[in-house]
Specification:
Helix content is 68%, strand content 0%. By secondary structure, the protein is mainly α. It is elongated and about 95 Å long. The two termini are 19 Å apart.
């Protein structure tokens, strides 16, 4: 009786996970490239900071968020790039350290640092003089918790900022998951990656399965876990496509669209077998192919780091299953 953890099933899982990881790497690079063009990270950060202050104002002309972004300490974190100039947008940093956020905010509220008086009292007075808003209410609460030093308020501001950035990370992650799903569906169609067809071919072809596992093992041995952060250029996208093509061609998986060819083999004039990658005919077959693409897209939305980690775990399971199967075979011979 075949165990659910037999090497064949594990090797099919390894093959699928490896394909998903390779395609996810391409989707991640394209996503970061698009995010760089649109300034998505900087926009998400600015949106999160505005949410912290809940549109609170420094005075009748300037919001607290704008005052923060116009401050020299924050402006020094970034410079206007090509796409900022192209879209006529101000631009902004993709990340602000918590300590710098707190220092900048305190400096905005008490520019002189309260040098001529008690700094903590000056800070509380400055917060009290802000126009009424939910942002002011939050700052009053943070500055009036029995502190005796400005550094204690600074620590509260840093914690408040970190909590807000956790929400920003959640927003960005949900958006990224949606973008990766859309990109994954596009990539699945462009590369004709049908999860069900790949699984079927791997299961029915032990040689193909072994070659795929070997390629996956070589990859995890020579590469580190991929990162989901960082900017990407057009050259990075081209390099990711080249790497993907190289890996897939090496494994000879049923991925990609078949080239037009004659209906008969030139050597014996016999009809050629149908290419499993060809777009099917018939409503049921078309629906099955679409389902395979959608399954691939859903898998790619999980991201390359997820599949890299899972691939390593499958490798560990396989190394455990293989010796057990071998020892059972030897025992049955005896």
């Amino acid at each position: 009786m075949t165990s659910i953890f037999s090497s064949g099933i594990v090797e099919v899982a390894i093959g699928l996970a490896f394909v998903y990881m390779l395609l996810s790497l391409l989707c991640s690079v394209v996503n970061e490239w698009i995010a760089g063009i649109l300034g998505s990270r900087a926009y998400s950060l600015e949106r999160g900071i505005s949410s912290l202050f809940t549109d609170g104002n420094l005075n009748s002309q300037t919001s607290l968020a704008c005052a923060l972004y116009d401050h020299g300490l924050i402006q020094s974190l970034y410079k206007q790039g090509f796409w900022d100039r192209f879209f006529h947008r101000r631009g902004g940093p993709a990340y602000i350290p918590p300590a710098l956020f707190a220092t900048t905010l305190i400096n905005i509220l008490i520019p002189t640092g309260g040098a001529n008086a008690d700094p903590l009292a000056s800070l509380r007075t400055a917060i009290g003089n802000l126009p009424d808003s939910k942002g002011k209410q939050a700052l009053v609460a943070l500055a009036n918790q029995g502190q005796t030093k400005v550094d204690e308020v600074r620590k509260n501001l840093e914690d408040w900022y970190n909590d807000g950035m956790d929400r920003v990370s959640g927003w960005y992650k949900r958006r990224t998951t949606l973008v990766l799903f859309i990109l994954g569906f596009i990539v699945a169609i462009a590369s004709n990656t049908d999860s069900f067809l790949i699984a079927q071919m791997l299961w029915n072809n032990p040689a193909l399965r072994q070659a795929t596992v070997t390629a996956a093992d070589n990859y995890v041995q020579t590469h580190t876990a991929p990162s989901t952060t960082g900017s990407a250029t057009t050259d990075d996208v081209k390099a990711a496509i080249t790497n993907l093509n190289s890996q897939l061609q090496t494994m000879q998986l049923p991925v990609g669209w078949p080239m037009p060819q004659a209906n008969v083999a030139p050597s014996n004039n016999q009809p050629l077998p149908p290419d499993p990658r060809a777009f099917p005919s018939g409503a049921q077959a078309i629906l099955f192919r679409l389902s395979g693409w959608l399954f691939t897209a859903a898998a790619l939305s999980l991201g390359a780091p997820f599949w890299f980690d899972l691939l390593n775990k499958f490798m560990v399971v396989r190394s455990t299953v293989k010796p057990e199967e071998k020892s059972q075979t030897e025992a049955s011979k005896g």
